[in-house]
Amino acid sequence: MKKKRHIYRLAAGIMLSALIITGLPAGQAQAADGKMTVKLTKGKGKAYTKKLKKGVKLKLTAKLGKKKLSRKYLSFKTSKKSVASVSKTGVIKAKKAGTAWITVTYKKKQTKRKARIKVKITSPVQKKETGIGNYKPYTVNGKKTIKTYLLNGLVPCGRTLYIYGGGWGSYGTQIGYQQAWKDFFDSHAKESYDYSKYKFQRDKGFDCSGFAGWTLYNTLYKESDGEELSISGSDVAKTYADNGWAVLTKNSKDKTFKPGDVISKPGHVWISMGQCEDGSVLILHSTPQSGVQISGSKGKAAELAAYYMKKYFPAWPFTAKHMGEAYITKGDKARWKVSGKGAIMSDPEGFQEMTGEQVLQKLLGD
Fold first, then answer.
1. Does the pTM of the predicted model rise above 0.85?
2. Which residues lie closer than 8 Å to 318 by C-beta, 6 or more apart?
3. Which CATH code, of 3.40.50.720, 3.30.530.20, 3.90.1720.10, 1.20.1250.20, is assigned to 126-363?
4. Architecture of domain 34-122
5. What ranges do the domains of the chain cover?
6. What are phi and psi of 56, to 5 degrees?
7. CB 91 within 8 A of CB 32
8. Which site in 57, 121, 245, 323 is 20 to 30 Å from 224, CA atoms measured?
């Protein structure tokens, strides 16, 4: 229930991000990526400027003349904790893009001196790798369309393993493909992979819910560390509909599957990439004993899934999954509203009206 309330708040203000702040206990030493020494003077203090990349830590030391000062008489303050925090020991943590002033104050008896550092923080630029065909293995952030939603879902496809609990918390609010996913995939991707040995190593991959939450996050936002969107897979479709973002139907009653539909069933959530001419469905999801992949329910979709996984994701060591007809007949379906009240997506390219074959050709190639 707590996770669902978290997403309900997002519906009330979709463009606002709630920063998730984590840290060490007060007073505990923090490892820094670099050091900076400032000289303290009277009045407002000498002003410095420092540029940092998001996620970097900088250790401050202070001097009075040529004398290095003990931390005992120093205090540190930030003008904007959401952008840059500073610990009692003088470690600045660059948290998100923006500007903050860090004030260093020395006070001993009647002596008071200061220095100010204007910290400018930039977000790391996502590496734009080269894929095969039309495939672009990097996210398109903040462009809220059905096309970009599907494109973003394909970014970890074929190169990210299933981790129970993966992609929850702050790990589901990171922009772009993460190096930790690649490192874990490169060292563990094989047919005998056993996800049960790596439960809750949240930074190394995705479970089904973490994948769905991360995909939506990267479609809605341009910056990391905002509102978490990962909730129980069984509740995803209903929650999106309750927020007014989508229309909810039962799969048993509505046998159509449009590109971008989000399907929740007991214990699982998956994204539809469209329906083939024979009625079979292309499925994008993260599944146990493998990871993020394209699967097919049967027939043409199963054939296409096997072909595209082999051609466009050659490092994928697993056999393409045929999920079966029963897989798509259970659960609830959320179909994104692309106009009108509550809509957070648009569909200018008309992806919702495409077949599964057309979607794969557009996003990946022949």
1. no
2. 191, 193, 289, 290, 291, 293
3. 3.90.1720.10
4. Sandwich (2.60)
5. 34-122, 126-363
6. -80, 145
7. yes
8. 245
